[in-house]
Amino acid sequence: MRQLVMPLKAPVRNDLVEPLSKWLDKDDQVTFDDINPLELVVPKPEFKSAACLSDLKRLAGLRNDLSEAMMDSHSSAMEEHMAVRDCRDYHATLLEFEKKGFPTMEDPFSGINLVWKGAFAKKQEETHHSLVWDRACTMWNIAALESYLVSVADLTTKEGCKDAVNRCQDGASILAMLRDLASSDDYTTVDLAPSMITFWEKYLLARGQFCIYKMANLGDTVRQHSVLSYLVKATFDLYNDALQATQDPRLQSEVPKQAEQWGAHCKAQSMIACAKAEFHQAIDFRIKKEMGKEIFRLQMCLSMISECSNFIGSAGLAMPELRSMQRLAKDRLAAAEKDNHDVYMDTIPSRMDEIRSSRIVKSNLNLPTDMLVPNTELFQSV
Q: In 10 A of CB 32, how many CB atoms?
């Protein structure tokens, strides 16, 4: 089953040097927004544009480079434009400008018009007048690029799994901060709606948790099947959180096709995670020679596989691993039932405790240094 990837947002090309220079050189001062008098505003810089012209050109250059890169596919943006590096540097540069007192609040009369295309409707554009808007859209793109890199990661090696986990955690942490940042502003496109951001955050967490499970289950690793069952069960919870976000009325209304596809993907992944957890528990009981409990877990596993198979068929999804897993579980169940009948004669439980989850993946990481510190030192002349 193909993994989900966040779409990119593209800024409309704009020479920011002129409007920011005019804004700086005006004698008026920034005032509190009448709509929100409690909003904290950093004082407007005392210096004029001539003192920071190279810095203004740096900011405008980064933005215009991204306006070209973000119009391409993820792979092209990565290979031809070094998009991750440039997005992170642009975010760090915007932060430096905000600290100096450049516009961080909506003022339609400032002359600063920052236009971005929608991630899901390229013809849809949204305009704001604050650098915070540009920074929010850039955070989206950084998380989107991380989601792409996760989707192409090599999960057959420990190094590939580690890289995917780190990218999932970074992306999810950035999205968690973006949700807080975007909640204080009135953004109209669905891209930065809280439910949209929550969906992608939970999806990346689920994918990261799965990569942790995958790394613990590699062929050169000493497997502890009880631990594996706890790890993969945690992906069930996270995929269900993502699934719940897709049911938000705004997503159902504005991106109904995508919401349906995302929901089906997450439901299928959560169902197979449950089946895997049952299978690992069964192996653990086989090692302990508790045949009755092994049989119970295998029966539960096969029941979940059957339910998942019916669902993915109705949803038009493909999950080739399901058939091989079903065959393996059936073969093991037949062998376990024979061994139990001939040798062990264990009682098969009618019910067992639910398998617990062990969540390892994190979403509360700090922003990477290259999102906080620009590659080029700014405002040296002021």
A: 12
pTM exceeds 0.90 for this model = yes
Question: Of 9, 369, 2, 377, nearest to 189 (Cα)?
Answer: 9
- The whole-angstrom separation of Cα 174 and Cα 269 is 24
Are 173 and 103 in contact by the 8 Å Cβ rule? The answer is no
Q: Give the bridge partners for 2, in sequence order.
A: none
**Residue spans of beta strands (DSSP E) within the chain:** 114-117, 125-128
Q: What is the rounded radius of gyration, in angstroms, for the C-alpha atoms of the chain? A: 26
- Beta-bridge partners for 114: 128
- What is the DSSP secondary-structure string of 285-325? HHHTT-HHHHHHHHHHHHHHHHHHHHHHHHHT---THHHHH
Provide the residue type at 281 as one letter: Q
Q: How far apart are CA 118 and CA 134, in angstroms?
A: 13
Cα(167)–Cα(332) distance, rounded to whole angstroms?
A: 36
Do 7 and 120 contact (CB within 8 A), yes or no?
yes
User: What secondary structure letter does DSSP report for 86?
Assistant: H
Could you give the angle at the alpha carbon of 279 between the alpha carbons of 268 and 307, nearest 5°? Answer: 35
Identity at 219, one-letter amino acid code: G
Q: What are phi and psi of 239, to 5 degrees?
A: -65, -35
How far apart are the C-alpha atoms of 26 and 20, rounded to whole Å? 10
**Alpha-carbon span 321 to 332, nearest angstrom:** 17
Distance of alpha carbon 361 from alpha carbon 364, whole angstroms: 10
What phi, psi does 171 have (nearest 5°)? -60, -45
Per-residue pLDDT tens over the stretch 334-372: 999 999 999 999 999 999 999 999 999 998 999 999 999
Residue-wise pLDDT tens digits, 288-327? 999 999 999 999 999 999 999 999 999 999 888 899 999 9
Polymer length in residues for the chain = 382
